[in-house]
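Handout, section 4.2: multi-component inputs.
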Amino acid sequence: MKHLAILAALLAPVPALADIDPSNWDAVTTEAEGQTVFWNAWGGSTTTNDFIAWVGERVMADYGVTLEHVKLTDTADAVTRVLSEKQAGEDDDGAIDMIWINGANFAAMKDADLLFGPYAEQLPNWAFVDVEGKTVQTDFTVPTEGYESPWAMAQVVFIHDTADLAEPLGSMQAIADWSAANPGRFTYPQPPDFLGTTFLKQALVDLLDDPSVLSEPATDDTYNAVTATLWAFLDDLTPTLWREGRAYPATGPAQLQLIADGEVDLAISFSPGEATAAIANNQLPPTARTFVLDKGTIGNASFVAVPYNSGSKAGAMVVANFLMSPEAQIRAQNPEILGYGTVLDMDALSADDRAAFDTLELGVATLSPAELGAVQAEPHPSWMTRIADDWMQRYGVSE
Amino acid sequence: MHLTRRRFLPVLPVLTLLAMLGPVAAGLWGTLLPAFGHLPAAGLTGPSLDPFRDLFDWGGLPRAVMLSLSTGLLATSISLAIVVLVTAGWSGTRPFRALERLLSPLLSVPHAAAAFGLAFLIAPSGWLSRVISPGLTGWDRPPDILILQDTWGLTMTAGLIVKEVPFLLLITLAALGQADARRSVSIAQALGYGRLTGWLKTVFPRVYAQIRPPVYVVLAYSMSVVDVAVILGPNTPPPLSVQIVKLMSDPDLTMRLEAAAAALVQLGLVIGALIFWRLGEVIVARLGWHCIAKGTRGRFDRVVAQTALLGGGASALVVLLGLVVLVIWSFAGFWGFPDAFPDAFTLRNWMRFGPGTLDALGETALIASIVALAALVLTIGCLEAEYRYGLSFSQRAVWLLYFPLLIPQTAFLPGLQTLMLNAGVDIGRLPVMLAHLVFVLPYVFLSLADPFRAWDTRMGTIATALRASPDGVLWRIRLPMLLRPILTALAVGFAVSVGQYLPTLLIGGGRVATLTTEAVALASGGDRRAIAVYGLMQTGAALVPFALALLVPALVWRNRRELRHG
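Output:
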């Protein structure tokens, strides 16, 4: 038996041997001290950037880990880099130690064996995570299997300036009708920006009588049949958009500036608390509010994953663990700071922490969990990729 | 010691050429291979024409190509026309001197910051619209018109013009010194020619012969610029250069093949446009001969000169007003349309973004100072070698200096990144510095060469007679006397490095965050307050060294009147 074990150890790939065991937390924190973690995270939202900077201060104070935020415009950039490093044979100390990730990017990296793990469910703070009530173990229908750890829950809401658009709109069709009656007052981020593709998915989910087909990978048959509805909808909507669809805001937060400037009255957001935080930062008028569609809206979790070739895996796990801590989650949910939904299970928390969550006010423009209503599932990642590509062919080169 | 030093000096010109041309040549090579389907890192071996086939399948290509050509040719011809006509009509007058004085600050404002300022000014909800609304316009909400990101790239062209006018004006002023302009114009005027027509017919041919290389640089740059295009340019589809950067960052490595193919197309476009421009020169020269022979004295001089001054003044004003509006946004509380000013002024934005800008400032300053110093050492080495060994730079060698600036960045930087990837070279600060050096060296050289050569060599002869060695002459006489031009050259190098976007982004692999990359990354988020803070910090980083270059010589030489303006 003993010989077999040695043989097995010898046969295992070398990097795996060098990797640290996530379940030995003391060893992880010891090794993490002094490490620098390059966290590649979308840098388009200044409130999120502030939060990440705060995380950096905290992990430095508690664990001696230096956190560097590499601000991405597109998470796909990070996937590219890890992939090219693998192809170039850089297997030990790649440029990226941690990625804010979900959906198609996670599926691609997991498929290509570019991720370290499983580690997520061995982290100490995993004990607080709401495994039952929140979709933290599947990501756009793909099982996470411990290769990424959750840190925020998100759900689609629509931000409207009540000074110009007083009443919520209950469906995608209602939005299109309103836009037709008020041309130039609505737009959405330009796909392949993730919020732009989210708008397309949300439209698809809301327009279909039975969206269950979306949970399976798209085939040519289902894709053509299902998306015909979407393209018809967009063909009607596009001429009524801001700038007649000849230009689009680059990202979600760019829509906030457009609302503040009075250019548009309605914007999609993937963060129920974003509007409140933006009002506090003077980025939105105090009259901004949010609503969801009658049939509910798409929701998902944000995760962090560690590339297989990170040179600071211990440090990255310390950060990932800290992100799931009650302290970080309370701050993230604070509507004045970030307003992200927590991934934690209130019943698993200590009385003090639970009280801290309870005392958080929702914020002036944030809907309560009850008002947020039904969460609709994300379609399988294959839908998003194809829809984004087709959108670019149809509307991205229109002029 | 003497031996080694004597051997080291002649090596410097070779080293300089290598630093400037090596990365360009390597990068073009690295672009060529994947463009024909050869990318071992992705397990692909060529040759194949598939990358070009994929590129030509992209529906946005015709317009992307058109945008690249139209912005380049328009921006170059309009800014050249403004500069030539303003100089022709006004040089030596008071309005001209005012423009001259604005030159240095205008030059040092980075392209990205100027573009942000322009965007904040002329957007339908921009400052200009706010100031006149609703009073003059009746707008209580901004009109739904496509100004920023316009389909034809006109706003982007305007953003380039306001930055190229000061550059071309500086170059023209330098050339003017050697063109004996004043006497020519006096004679022409004595023969009854208008001031502007006289200048155009007598001085312009001589000046243009000298400013031709920088004009070509402006053309190549305007056709392939990325940061200004990201901020002001259209996106449905984007100009070719932006599409190349997008393809480069696609998670699918095979997209790099298409990116390389597009980079070659971009190179071809620039070469084509340069040939087109050259033909245009021939035609303009023919017409010019005809015009000179006809002997018209210039009836419309006054109107043309005033229009040109308006253009020049407006382009300077736009940059300055843009900076003002950046300052206002950086202190703005809520600022809705159509208020001319924010509801409240607050320090909150600076408190939020200030600390982040300091990190980026540190990185920016570190890279810029090392690169500028390296460029300065190489430049002085070249010039001193030229002086000691009596080498002389031919006109052809001058073109060599401009060569790296004529190759579009989007053509060779992606190739350089792919090469580094294949070779497994670590990305990071050092490669970024080497990439910056390619762009910084020519400017430092051009800035220092004339003052260095103009130094009165009799000083050296006297010092040698007093038994100073050649090194002693250099270190103790020549360099101290040239303190001001040396510091100016350093400041130029610093500012050029600060403004580099694409080399930092592509070669740094996202790990090297300078003020410029951070500011352009923020552009997509549209948070005007954050953009304003970063844009101002970026401008400051470029501007402060210029101020020091003025201040330090004045302090050091406070008791040496003749050296103060050396």
